[in-house]
Amino acid sequence: MNEFINNILMHVSEEPAEDLPAHHHSFHHGAVIDRCKGIEFDAVAVNEEGVPYFFKGDHLFKGFHGEAELSNETFAELDDHHHLGHVDAAFRMHSEDSPEHHDHQFFFLDTKVFSYYKHKLEPDYPKDISEMFPGIPDHLDGAVECPKPDCPSDTVIFFKGDDIYHFDIKTKKVDEKEFKGMPNCTAAFRYMEHYYCLHGHQFSKFDPITGDVHGRYPKEIRDYFMRCSHFGDKKTEEHLEREKCSRVHLDAITQEDDGDLYAFRGHHFISVSGDKFHSDTIESAFKELHSEVDAVFSYQEHLYMIKDNQVFVYKVGEPHTHLDGYPKPLKEELGIEGPVDAAFVCADKHIAHVIKGKTIYDVDLKASPRVSVNEGLLTHFKQIDAAMCGPKGLTVVIGSHFYQFESPLQMIASKAIPEKHNVAQELFGCDH
């Protein structure tokens, strides 16, 4: 594989020297803000069209690429209160039971809250936070909406330091929560029905009810939500020099009967067919998925792609064809509750082996309905990132390394861990 293809595949973990704590920066009119320098965003809110707005100081970024603009160009009244400082928190209200607030964007500045609808400030705003959201403190760190059925009732989740508040929109009842598995959020937002906690220039995806973080987190914001020259743009000479193949991390991997290999990471995937390599965004080839696949396996010339509690199925081809009726619930399709860590089909051809934590489930794909017919316990690994079966047997990926087994049974029964291999060098042909 030539150097250009090598660098297409991987991402760099080096951090720019400018990565200082956000409170050391002060951004004002005339300042040039580069979202790719590792800044800590003050707040994030998604507009009614599904476009995330990232706030920093008195500027905002619209979407995943483009230059910063002054917040008052879109929300003019915020400039009238610029003495309050930056936007502390923001969210878009989702509550069909409260039509007077549904789809409004709320911004929190110190002790005040602003309500906008289609970029116009609503009458009688700004108001005191305590008036609109009784029981919620001032000077917040973050906020995110949690509509039904994600939460039992239409809810707003507020963050301040270690404190988490669930605010019931209808009853105005406040429940204080403790999210032990998640770092303190400096911003939070809901996107594509997932919940993200931003901390510094990293993020974690979390369960809005329990705060549980599933999967390999934290992850780098610039590698997923920004198009940055050293992270998302794979074509610059500077990026090629900085890129290091040995630092790849995969979310999922699979190999078809004809030997074609697919590997997924964040927003991107690569396909390997013989000596030909192709890299693109997941959204470009699998638009219904958007990003962040949990597990993928190949079965009868179809790709079964598992994301959270859903299964998407695509017929392999150019282009890949999304099957009608999908996505379906994972429980309905495979008889297992999500999320899962990895999935693969081996020489038996009709058994899907699904890994969830330290348990491996065997699902008969010819059965109807499909249910787990056998369960095994993994003794050697705490968590598996990805796995696939191929001509050399079972490949188990953990971080930047993989392990080779003859079969799933050997993986379960083996008393010793086999030799560790480098993913980038031995799967993708990197030179170092």
From TrEMBL:
Lineage: superkingdom: Eukaryota
InterPro entries found in the cross-reference section: Heme_transport/Cell_adhesion, Hemopexin, Hemopexin-like_dom, Hemopexin-like_dom_sf, Hemopexin-like_repeat
SUPFAM superfamilies hit by this protein: Hemopexin-like domain
Chain positions of Hemopexin repeats: 84-136, 137-181, 182-228, 290-337
Annotated binding of heme, by residue: 278
Glycosylated residue positions: 184
Record localization: Secreted
Keywords: Disulfide bond, Glycoprotein, Heme, Iron, Metal-binding, Repeat, Secreted, Signal, Transport
S-S pairs: 36-228, 146-151, 185-197, 346-389
Gene Ontology biological-process entries: intracellular iron ion homeostasis
Keyword Transport in annotation: yes
Main location class: secreted
GO molecular function: heme transmembrane transporter activity; metal ion binding
Keyword Lipid metabolism: no
GO cellular component, one term: extracellular space
Known function: Binds heme and transports it to the liver for breakdown and iron recovery, after which the free hemopexin returns to the circulation.
Family as reported in the entry's similarity comment: Belongs to the hemopexin family.
Protein known as: Hemopexin
Organism taxonomic ancestry: Eukaryota, Metazoa, Chordata, Craniata, Vertebrata
